[in-house]
Structure formats: C-alpha cells, structure tokens
C-alpha cells in the first residue's frame, strides 16, 4: 500500500465565502470585514489557480473540477471531507456536519475520473448516518497510514467514534482514537478535524502533541508513530493556528516527494523544523490567506488524494 500519490482532485470555487454553518465548531474561520462576497470568491479563485499551477509545475497530476453556482456550496473547495479514494478501487462517501456541505457530493465527479482512466469498483456510502446526526468528515477526520494499516482520528462533533470503527472494519485498518483540543477564549474546545493538528508522511509525522490533553492518549498516539519508525516533528498550538498541521505529502515528477503547505504555515515554522521536514521531502508552498481566513481550512483540505487504479 502506498502512503503518497501523484494524483489529486481539486474543486475550483465559484461561490466561496465564510460558511456560517461550519463556523459553529471551526474556530479557525474569520469574517473578513469590508469585503464583498464576490471579492472574497475572486481572491479565493486567484489563490486556487496559482496553487494548481505550482502543483502541476512540480509534476503532480491535478484533476480540477469547476464547482457549480447551484446548489450553494461555499466550502466546495475542500473535497477531502466528503470523498476518499482507495487502491482497491473503492470510493468512500462521508456524512457531513453542515447541511450545505452535503450538497458538495457530486456523482458527475466520479464520471469525470472514470473518463480520465481511473477505475472505480465499489462505492462505500456512509452518508445515511446524517439522518441520525452522526458525522465523519473524510480525510479531514481520518488520517490514514496506509502501509501500516492504521487510522488516526481525533474525535469531535464531526468524527463519531462508532463510525470511525466501522470505517476501519470496512477498510481493514486499526483505529488510533483520541481527543485533541485547542484554546478558544480561554476554554479548551475539541479540534474539528484531525488534519489540522497532524500530518502523516511516508517516513515522518507532524503533530501538535500539546493538543492531546490526556497524557495516556498522547503517549499512545506517539508510541504508535514511533512503532512505525516515523520521525516525529512536533509543532506548537500557535503553529496549528497558522495551519502548520494542515500539510500533505504528494509525489511529483519522477516520484519526487513534496510536502505541500500554505505560505502562512511555512512562515510559522522554525528553521530546525524546516530542516527536519526537508530531510524527508521538498517543501512546496502557496499563498492561501483568503481561503484559510474564510474557510478555516488550508492546503491539505483542498486536495483529495486519488489512489484509484488506472485502466
């Protein structure tokens, strides 16, 4: 099983803005005062387009799908939350916390991938859990260590424990489940997505261990990473607030490995952390300031990895 792929799906936004339905438990979102919604979307499109150019220049295979004006899907730029693609040809569809995010699921995207030569064998659909107000938001919630057969998941209103276990049973992974917190106005609140405070590479892991308040849980997570010979690169909660946990390792031309992150994430890192990361792969950054501020997500959230077999 491969941990990294050179193919990713990205959705180009047409109505991007701060999503009021997700802001209730995504504490990274901000209102950009004095900007019209059209201006926010235009800025997001410019950031998106520049990001795609950089990825393609590195030899990464990017499938870009334009979002549609209707239905209203302000967060469509983050497709990794509603879909994941697997080496055996399985596609998983996930139950989403925000009602307007459920509209992001589009069958025509699967048709487009098949036209591109990707083979889809089976669809594993968890979306009926929404009827019971149970959610699991894709690879935002699930950090999949494919070669080592593990899934790391920080529980939250968007990551239900029973559903995590069901996913692990369906896809044959061992669950590593914990709770991660951030300080919001002096209170410790659950972090909404695991991939904000943690990133798994082939040979390394970036993690904010300070977010895991329970010492036993923290030790269990770190022990699991160490057991799989991953170099652990610790980041601080302040760096998490700058999206330094929201990174993704992707393969480019000639299988060269890149660690993709935003400019803000990169600027928050210390030289020693950068040196450790660059030992494992080359860093590729892009400015995502508008997307991060309004969307409360960053580089990793924008990329849905495609592991599907090719015809």
TrEMBL record:
Keywords: Hydrolase. The keyword Glycosyltransferase does not apply. It holds the Pfam family DDAH_eukar. One of its GO terms (molecular function) is hydrolase activity. NCBIfam families: citrull_CtlX. PANTHER family: AMIDINOTRANSFERASE (PTHR43224). This is Citrulline utilization hydrolase CtlX.
